[in-house]
Amino acid sequence: SDYLTIATTRPETLFGDVAIAVHPKDDRYSKYVGMMAIVPMTYGRHIPIISDRHVDKDFGTGVLKISPGHDHNDYLLARKLGLPILNIMNKDGTLNKVAGLYCGLDRFEARKKLWAELEETGLAVKQEAHTLRVPRSQRGGEIIEPLVSKQWFVTMEPLAEKALRAVERGELTIIPERFEKIYNHWLSNIKDWCISRQLWWGHRIPVWYIVGKDCEEEYIVARSADEALEKARAKYGNNVEIYQDPDVLDTWFSSALWPFSTLGWPDVSEEDFRRFYPTTMLETGHDILFFWVARMVMMGIEFTGTIPFSYVYLHGLIRDSQDLKTKWMIGMWRCQLGHPSISTLKCQVDGNLDQIIENLN
């Protein structure tokens, strides 16, 4: 017959709640720990009341709803505690069947309807303004909704160990030297890399599935559709049907292969590969040390047995008054450069290269 009051900016996610958490030293709620709570509007679904230091007892009411399918921090907590993960949302922003009678409603429409029904049943306490940062899509401006989905990952620790040793042994030199510490810290704390993206453009994931089979259990990795079909027929017979994974690779995964994939690899006997790989130096901005440089090093060692370059020369960035990189500000570049001729730019580039080579020597 008791109630726990919860503050939330996304009430519709209560359909994905799997637990209620309080701080272990919060005396207001300690008596409830270990009990079960009924989630409103879910036909009596019960979830456990737990305690965890993750909860800030001074924020809101001190009672935290755990929705691991739609919040990053809740997801980490659920993984730690072995809690289930519920996804209540479709990719078009509507609620799925987990939401019961709210299934099919747009997330914001569901939010309004749910709040109205909570008020009608006397379960809504109050509504007040709250300032927070809301992530939005760069292109369309839509509010981004966190959700858990199936993705492809690369195990990174074995790759990172080899990339770390390359710097330790002096095989790879990073200039300025201070960036070696940043490089080492990132690789020493690396996480598995999600390489799949739900986009239109990019290299397709080279995986094919069998029609009528569980795609999590039965799949084929191949270089082409013809090769995939040949492998499928060898295992399932000539009448088998296949379809390719609709996702594409993370652009940084493709970019990580660039030093050798552009030179005829995997045919290491190609003249371009033998002549130009590995190269001497890479020059790039320090902001993509992790995104590109470290990953090129890891992929180069993994697939060719050697680092793709011996020196990495990292330059600074030109930013505007809003701290935006000027590579996004084409008009600003025109203002800074004026209208230089090709010969003028060539002289500037030649002069810069001479200075870089002198520094390396």
Summarize the structure in words.
With 361 residues, the chain is α/β, with parallel strands linked by helices. The protein has four domains: 11-120, Valyl/Leucyl/Isoleucyl-tRNA synthetase, editing domain (Isoleucyl-tRNA Synthetase, domain 2); 150-205 and 245-316, HUPs (Rossmann fold); 206-244; 326-361, no CATH class. Helix content is 32%, strand content 14%. The chain has helices spanning 72-81, 107-120, 157-168, 179-188, 225-236, 251-256, 258-261, 271-276, 289-304, 330-337, 342-360, and strands at residues 19-22, 36-38, 46-51, 63-66, 153-154, 173-175, 193-194, 196-197, 207-210, 219-221, 242-244, 248-249, 279-285, 309-315. It has a four-stranded mixed beta sheet with strand order 2-3-1-4, covered by helices on one side. Strands 6-14-13 form a three-stranded parallel beta sheet, with helices on one face. Helix 3 (157-168) runs antiparallel to helix 4 (179-188) and helix 3 crosses helix 9 (289-304). The longest helix has 19 residues, at 342-360. The model is unreliable at 332-337 (pLDDT under 50).
Question: Brief description of this entry?
Answer:
It comes from Castanea mollissima (Chinese chestnut). One of its GO terms (biological process) is valyl-tRNA aminoacylation. This protein is of the alpha/beta class and 361 residues long.
How many DSSP-defined strands? 14
Query: What Rg, in angstroms, do the CA atoms define?
Result: 27 Å
Q: What is the CATH C-level name of the largest domain?
A: Alpha Beta
Class from secondary-structure proportions? alpha/beta
Q: From the 3D coordinates, which CATH architecture of the largest domain would you assign?
A: 3-Layer(aba) Sandwich
General form: globular
Low-confidence stretches: 332-337
- What is the H/E string? EEEEHHEHEHEEEEHEEHHHEHEHH
User: What would CATH call the homologous superfamily of the largest domain?
Assistant: HUPs
Mean pLDDT comes to 90
Largest sheet: 4 strands, mixed
| CATH fold-level name of the largest domain | Rossmann fold
Strand order of the largest sheet: 2-3-1-4
Instruction: Provide the domain count.
Output: 4
| SS element count, helices | 11
Helix content: 25-40%
Instruction: Provide the β-strand percentage band.
Output: 5-15%
* End-to-end distance: 78 Å
InterPro entries: aa-tRNA-synth_Ia, Leu_tRNA-synth_edit, Rossmann-like_a/b/a_fold, Val/Leu/Ile-tRNA-synth_edit, Valyl-tRNA_ligase
Domain Leucyl-tRNA synthetase editing: 33-93
GO molecular function: aminoacyl-tRNA deacylase activity; ATP binding; valine-tRNA ligase activity
Protein name: valine--tRNA ligase
